Every structure is written in C-alpha cells, then in structure tokens.
Amino acid sequence: MSQLKPPPIGLLDKYYGETAETIYTGRVRVTGGEAAHGRASGVVRSDDGTLNVNLRLPAELGGEGGGSNPEQLLAAGYGACFHGVLTLLAIRAGVPMHDATVDTAVTFARDPVDGLFLLSAEIRVALPGVERALAAELVRDAERICPYAKMFRDGIDHVVALASESSSPSPPPPSGDPA
Asked: What is the pLDDT of residue 178?
C-alpha cells in the first residue's frame, strides 16, 4: 500500500474567478432502514461505495443506538476538513505538527425562535509542541479558510427540490462501475 499524501499545498492559493469553481462533489444516498425512515434507521451510501453507514437514533433521543447519526457524520466531516486545512497551513508555514487533534461536537437542539430544531457546532484543537501564539494563529487562519467553518458562520448555498418521477430508487453505482 502506498503512503497517504496530503492534498496539494496549492489548494491554499487564492482563486479570483467570478463564479464558484467546483473542485470536488461528494454524493451520498440515504434510504430508510428497519423503521423505514432515515433519521432512526437508514443507510447512507456514497456513490463510490467507500462510505456505507447504518444510521441509528441515539439513545438520548429514545433510540437503541448502535449506529451513527447525522450529527456524528456532520461532526466527522467538519473535524476532518478543519484538521486538513490546519495541516496544510502548518506545512506552508514550516511548522511541524505532531499528535494534533481536532475534537468536534455537533449539537441537535430545540430552536427557541420557531420551536423546531437547530444545529450548533464546536471545535477544540490541541497542537502539542507548538508555541501557543503560533497555534492560536494557525487555528484562527484555519477557521477563516475551512469551508465547513464558513458554512457554519455564513450559511451555505443550497437547493432542495423534488426529484423527477423517473429518478431511480436504487443507490447510485460506485464511480467507474457500469450502471
């Protein structure tokens, strides 16, 4: 197996286009599971087949637990992205990072404004061996650059639409596989 490599440091270069330039799109499909609804017991599958996660309602919400949930998946994505940006910034600055950790929490809560639901997130970063002022600068810059942090801070462009009736009910095939 080959050694994993970080993404190219050029990803930190500024982009000066007039519209967003797509770099990558992750795609998943959620289907109902044992309870026939995604929140409590669905299955999440990525189009390339590498992600295949059983969803379970957490015990704190009255479920049996025993699987992941949307908050954990969002926390995983946010934490991984933040860690990646932090790593690239450290490489660019010539700062060795050993045993860096990014702890991420995504909280599902009741919204006092509309009585429904909201999410909040918290990131805690530990950079052992990095001088505190430099570590704070790296974290501050990562928060400014990380697209998940931007999403939580500024919102996100999104579209919600009903799929056409001819849309296939089966999961998308993995990339490169014949349909």
From this structure: 44
> From CA 38, how far away is CA 179, in angstroms rounded?
25
CB 85 within 8 A of CB 142: yes
Neighbour-count burial for 84-112, b at 16+ CB within 10 Å, e otherwise = bbbbbbbeeeebebeebebebebeeeeee
Measure the CA–CA gap between 99 and 136, rounded to whole angstroms. Answer: 16
> Is a pLDDT exceeding 60 seen at residue 28?
yes
pLDDT digits (tens, 9 = 90+) for 115-143: 999 999 999 999 999 999 999 999 999 99
Identify the CA nearest to 141 among candidates 57, 179, 85.
Answer: 85
The whole-model pTM stands at: 0.83
3-state secondary structure of 107: strand
Q: How many other C-beta atoms are found inside a 10 Å radius of the C-beta of residue 17? A: 6
